[in-house]
Structure formats: structure tokens, C-alpha cells
Amino acid sequence: MTRISRAAWPLLAALALFGLRWVPDRWTPAAMARVRWAIGCDEVENLDRLLSHDDIEQAERGYYDNLLDTGVRSGLAPPIAKSVAELRQLVLRPGLSITRNDGTTWNTNALGMRDQDYSLSKPAGTFRVAMAGDSIGLGLGVGDGLGFEPRLEEWLTSESLRRGGPKVEILNLALPGRSPGQRWDHFQKVGWRLEPDLVLFEATDADIGWDARRLAELVPRGIAWDAPIYGEALRGAGLSPGASAEECRQALVPRRWKLLEAAYRTVAAECRARGVPCIYILIPRVGRFPGAAPLQRLVELARASGFSAVVNLSDAFDGRDPATLAVHPSDFHPNAEGHALLARRLAETLWPLRVLDPLRPSARPAEEVADREKTRKLGEL
Hints:
The chain is an alpha/beta fold. It has 14 helices and 9 strands. Helix 8 packs antiparallel against helix 10 (about 245-250), helix 11 (about 255-275) runs parallel beside helix 12 and helix 13 (about 335-350) runs antiparallel to helix 14 (about 365-375).
């Protein structure tokens, strides 16, 4: 019997894994398909997430907290994020310019946003919008310019200029994998100095329980246990630095809705105090269906928190095969088509709102009715 040398085993394993990419889908179970896709993907961090797919919280941490490399090639791609020892946990690195294996680009500006360059001071003749959001708002999984945010910015600018209104800037302050409180903490540190006329707060059903999970990671390290954004909801948990992870989890998970309410109310109250309208936007995750009751409760909480308007787009992907809208069937992030769909729905919904009146300076009442009808029939952005 022929013995295989120890040195040959790695080569044989590599060939076997390499061959998985060409095995027909009907021959492989779903789990194996996910592994095969991850091997062929140029994002190293996805493999960690997919291999821990059965543990949702572990997968979430593996995917987001290790989101430190776009994986063009080992050793060549700079990390897209860096850790910070405070509530946010991570921020995007500024000045990145990456071309991935598939030819798409992944860039950040000098302010550490996945966006084009903007001046700190708002230019004259500009209506500036600042958006707080998560990885979907960031456009994770698609190339530059293909997320819903840049598409919405382009459409609003075009429509505004056509009517004699100002140019529109949407500054993308989204961070991947951050809870509502963390997203707003980042906005507080960066967003207000950009002089926004309007704030968009992007959310998904993942907001439910997200603050509790993140705080359960941070409090044992002596971070965020006294974070003002969570107010009484966190203080009532009776936690202090030194509490174990399990103690934090047991104290915080039952308070998940209270923590979320504290974060939402802080966002709305701070915007109101500054005289800047804030629109809450609930968007779906591809293929994730939490049920009608949790979504309804989430929307009701947002309305009760005092946002200027609440836009519920949780049905944006209804009736569509998730496999056609996700970056991969095992993932919930929208692909380019999914983002285009979100952009169209957002344009239809936001355009008639009074907070966008500055973009329609020449519109008469009859024209506004026509505009609303037009947005219902909006084509590709």
C-alpha cells in the first residue's frame, strides 16, 4: 500500500478544496456550498463567519469584529477598520483605496467614511444630509457607488437642481456591525461638526437586542458601563466594571428593549434640541424574516421615541427570491440590485416629506402632486 508523505497532505487538501468550486450545486448540501463559496471569495473574513454559521452571536462577532481586511491578497490589503477602546469598538480607517479581485473598489475618505470627499464646512448652496447606519448603510458587499446611499444622493441632487434647488450631499457615517447606541455615539463624535440640515438614522430588525449584546462584551472590560446614551436602562442593571460576561448577559438581555428605547430616544431628543430633523428608516435584511410582531413593535418604538418621521421599508424585498438580492444566499447583505431597490423605495418615500421642501423651491401645489405621482413610478436610479 502506497503511503502518502506528510508534506503531500497540505497539497492534497488544497486541491480538494479548490475542486469544490466546480462541484455542481445539486451535488452539495447547503453548508458545503457556503464553504465552497467562501473559499472562492476574496474576503477572508467571510470564511470565519460562515464556518461559525450555526452560532448566530458568534458568527456576528466573527464577521463584524474581525472585519479588518478586504482580502485582496494576504499581506497586501490594508485593514478597513481599527479597534478603539471605547463604546464604538471600531472605526473605519481614513484614506483607503482598494481594488478587489473582482475589480470593484472599496475606498474611504479623509474623514474615515466610505464616501467621496467632503469639506468639513457645508458649502454654500448645499443641503447636507448625514446618515448614521450599519453595514447595510455602509454598502458592505458591493463596490463604491453601488450602495443605496450614493444612489439616493445622486437622485435627490438631480431632482433638486432641476427645480432650482440646492445640491444634495449625503454623508455616510455608517459603521459595520454597530448597535444603535454605538452608531449614535459615532455620529456624536463626527456627525455634528459636519453641519447637517437633516439626519437619517438607518436601522434593521437586528437593532432588537444589539445594544444588550454589545454592552455584554464591553462592560466586563470596564468600557461603556456608565455610557450616558443608555441612561437609566443601563444603570438599572446594577452593573459595574469587573462584572463577568455571563453576569452582564443575564442582566442586560432582559433589558434589551429598554436599552434600545434609551438609544432611540437619545437620537431623537438630541436632533430635536439642535433643531435638525431626524428620519428613522427601517430597512430589511435579505432573507431574514423576524415576524410581523417584532417589526411592529420596533416601528412603534421609533414613533414613540420622537423622530421627525418614521419610514418603514421592511417590506422592500417582499415577493423577491432572496438569492437574487443578497451578496450570497448565505448572507443577508443586499447586492447591487438589492441596494438599487432600496434606493428607489427611499426616493419614493422621502421626496414628498416636508423636511425636503428646500429641494423644491419652485414647486407649486399642483406640481407637488405631480411630483408625488412621478416618484411612485420611479425607474432605475
